[in-house]
Design brief:
Elements: E1 2-10, H1 26-43, E2 47-54, H2 65-73, E3 77-86, E4 92-100, E5 103-111, E6 121-129, E7 132-140, H3 146-167, E8 176-180, H4 190-197, E9 205-207, E10 224-228, E11 232-239, E12 250-256
Parallel strand pairs: 1-2, 7-8
Antiparallel strand pairs: 1-12, 2-4, 3-4, 5-6, 6-7, 8-10, 9-10, 11-12
Helix pairs in contact: 1-2, 3-4
Length: 257
C-alpha cells in the first residue's frame, strides 16, 4: 500500500489577488511565488498539480515560474503542459504543470483549441510511486461556456479511452483527475458529466464534496476538484484557507491499494 498527498492549485500566474494581469512587478511575483512555495512546504505534498503557470511571459515577469517553485519548494521533478504560446513583443507561454517528489516517467499535453491567449487543456503524466505506475491528469476547463466545457470533457474522455487501450496494463489505478473545472459539482455541467462517464473505469469519488474554492477571500463557488478512482482510499481532504491566488488550493491524502 502506498500513500500519496496531492495538491491542486490554480496560482493565477503568480499575481496574487491583483485583478488585472500585467500590473504586478517581477519582484512582487517572486514574493508571491515564495509564499506559495512556503505553503507547499507546510502542506508537504508528494504531487502538486498547478494551473495558470507561466514559463516565460511578459505579463508575469519573463521568468520560469515552475522552475522557481521547484527550486524553492524542494521538488525533484517537474513538467510543463503549455496551452498558450505567443512570440513577439508581448510574448506568452503558460498552462498547466506538475511538481513531484516521484519520478515523472511519461508526460503528454493536450490543448483543446488554437487560441494564443486563454486556451485550456490538460497535462497527462505517469508517476513512478515506489514501483507503481500512477497516472495523473491535470485539467483546466473553459471558464465562460458550458458548451465548450462539455466538449472539452468529451475530448478528455476519448483521449483517455485510447490511452487505456494502450497503457492500462501498467497502471496501478485508473487515472487520478484533478484541476480547475470552472464549474460546480452539481447541475448539468462538466464536473457532473465527467463523474458520470468515469463509471466506465470503475467507481470514482469526487473531492471535496462540500468546499468552495473561489474567490479565495470569501469563497462561494466550488470549482477545484480531485477525482479519485477505485483503488484509492481517501485519508483526508481539505480546502486550504489562504489568499495567495483567486483560488484556494485543495489537498487530498489517500492510499493506493
Amino acid at each position: 500500500m502506498r500513500r500519496l498527498r496531492l495538491v491542486t492549485f490554480n496560482i493565477a500566474h503568480g499575481r496574487g489577488l491583483t485583478p488585472i494581469q500585467g500590473f504586478t512587478s517581477a519582484r512582487k511575483l517572486r514574493l508571491n511565488l515564495r509564499k506559495i512555495s512556503a505553503l507547499l512546504g507546510r502542506l508537504a505534498p508528494d504531487v502538486v498539480a498547478l494551473q495558470e503557470v507561466d514559463e516565460c511571459s511578459r505579463w508575469s515577469g519573463n521568468f520560469d515560474h515552475l522552475d522557481y517553485l521547484r527550486v524553492h519548494g524542494g521538488f525533484m521533478h517537474s513538467v510543463f503542459g503549455i496551452n498558450n504560446r505567443r512570440k513577439g513583443l508581448f510574448n506568452l507561454s503558460y498552462g498547466n504543470a506538475l511538481l513531484s517528489r516521484h519520478e515523472i516517467t511519461h508526460a503528454e499535453t493536450v490543448v483543446f483549441g488554437r487560441s494564443s491567449v486563454g486556451e485550456k487543456g490538460f497535462l497527462f503524466t505517469e508517476l513512478d510511486v515506489s514501483g507503481l505506475c500512477v497516472p495523473v491528469v491535470n485539467l483546466h476547463l473553459h471558464f465562460g461556456s458550458r458548451a465548450q466545457r462539455l466538449r472539452q470533457i468529451d475530448r478528455l474522455l476519448a483521449w483517455l479511452l485510447d490511452q487505456h487501450r494502450l497503457r492500462a496494463r501498467g497502471w496501478a489505478v485508473g487515472p487520478i483527475i484533478c484541476g480547475d473545472f470552472n464549474t460546480p459539482s452539481t447541475g448539468d455541467d462538466a464536473t457532473a458529466s465527467l463523474l458520470s462517464h468515469l463509471a466506465d473505469y470503475g467507481d470514482y469519488v469526487l473531492h471535496p464534496l462540500n468546499g468552495p474554492t473561489f474567490p479565495s477571500p470569501l469563497p462561494r463557488r466550488a470549482l477545484d476538484f480531485v477525482f479519485l478512482p477505485m483503488g484509492c482510499r481517501l485519508v483526508s481532504c481539505e480546502v486550504v484557507s489562504v489568499v495567495l491566488s483567486d483560488h484556494r488550493p485543495v489537498v487530498v491524502e489517500f492510499e493506493i491499494n
